[in-house]
Design brief:
8 helices, Rossmann fold, 25% helix, alpha/beta, nine-stranded mixed beta sheet, 2 domains, five-stranded parallel beta sheet
Length: 353
């Protein structure tokens, strides 16, 4: 029996959102991952935890599923975050991103490993693949989970985000294996105290033509870049940027910081930037180490998308902008002066090209 976790990768290895999901999977494995000794109706303690005497004592191993070359598996990072084995679907068996085929592979791996639960980060890809997995298996999918506890008699007691994280819902999840996507800000990525060796196993999924009908491939120029959902640094631009031409300095800044560009909803509504770059309730939820928000007022819908950022730095001319209440640091000033100065300082620090 295992807990199986879908891991996405970027240019730096395992995506941060996936490491958070892997941490969640480890906690689930530590709870026994299967119905424990806690009888239905057992109340939680004052701290919100289940009584220790009722916890399932066993721990099951965590397995991960990846899609890509075996020689690029980030074995060190996966082991550090608690994975015991990695099952890798190489490009020779499945090239590019095909959500239904990925789901088919997960279904096969879940059966092969005896998975009690299958989890993935609630990124665009993680959510899509897990939805396909639910459809293929006929099992219920719990989306945007922040907590899960096995209960006696089968199933899990879960807590999940609703209304873009503005509400928490307590619910019961039945199904074997249990399918969950993990809210990207649910838990921080935490290495385990005593990591073991990672066993790497190539896996050839049993797919058919229908599974490959919808497939996306990445060009060489874009395949190494981080996605908005998994980037460790995001530079955001809002209405205060002024127009389409105002994003060039922000793109340069993002490049110097090793990050990607994100935008607010009004920017996409004006047609200045594509929707795929939108951060927010109706866009992408991000969990970077640093979110540098430039000219963004901070409407509640936008904050729902960046609440998982570890550090928020704001550049805005309005000292009363709502986003400043969420910022770790803020610069009240003109973007046209602050951003070029920051770019120049980063260039100088980097030295001659």
């Amino acid at each position: 029996m295992t807990v199986l976790c879908l891991v996405e990768t970027d240019a730096d290895g395992a995506a941060d959102a996936s490491l958070r999901a892997l941490t969640f999977a480890g906690r689930l494995a530590g709870s026994g991952a299967s119905p424990g000794e806690r009888p239905p109706g057992t109340p939680r303690g004052d701290d919100g935890a289940w009584p220790a005497s009722r916890q399932a004592p066993s721990r099951v191993p965590v397995a991960v599923a990846l899609f890509g070359p075996v020689d690029r598996v980030p074995a060190g990072a996966l082991a550090a975050y608690g994975a015991a084995s990695a099952h890798v679907v190489e490009p020779g068996h499945l090239d590019g991103y095909a959500p239904r085929a990925w789901a088919r592979a997960l279904a096969g791996l879940a059966a092969e490993t005896g998975a009690a639960a299958v989890v993935a980060a609630a990124t665009d890809r993680g959510s899509e693949v897990m939805a396909y997995l639910g459809a293929l298996t006929g099992l219920p999918l719990a989306a945007n989970c922040v907590q899960a506890d096995p209960v006696a008699g089968g199933g899990y007691q879960i807590v999940r985000h609703r209304w873009a994280g503005l509400l928490l819902e307590d619910a019961s999840l039945d199904g074997s294996p249990a399918l969950m996507t993990i809210a990207t800000e649910a838990v921080p990525a935490e290495p385990v105290a005593e990591p073991g060796a990672l066993a790497v196993h190539p896996y050839a999924p049993d797919t058919d033509a229908d599974d490959l009908r919808v497939r996306a491939t990445e060009t060489a120029g874009h395949s190494s870049g981080a996605s908005l959902a998994t980037a460790r640094v995001v530079v955001g631009g809002g209405r205060g940027v002024g127009g389409p031409d105002g994003f060039a300095p922000l793109e340069e800044l993002a490049g110097l910081l090793g990050g990607v560009l994100g935008v607010s909803r009004v920017v996409t509504s004006e047609g200045w930037r594509p929707h795929r770059q939108q951060v927010g309730q109706t866009g992408t939820k991000i969990t970077p180490e640093l979110y540098l928000a430039c000219g963004i007022s901070g409407a509640i819908q936008h904050m729902a998308g960046c609440a998982g950022a570890k550090h928020i730095v704001v550049v805005n001319t309005d000292p009363a902008a709502p986003i400043l209440a969420h910022a770790d640091y803020a610069v009240v000033g003109d973007l046209g002066e602050v951003i070029p100065a920051l770019v120049a300082a980063l260039r100088a620090r980097a030295g001659p090209a």
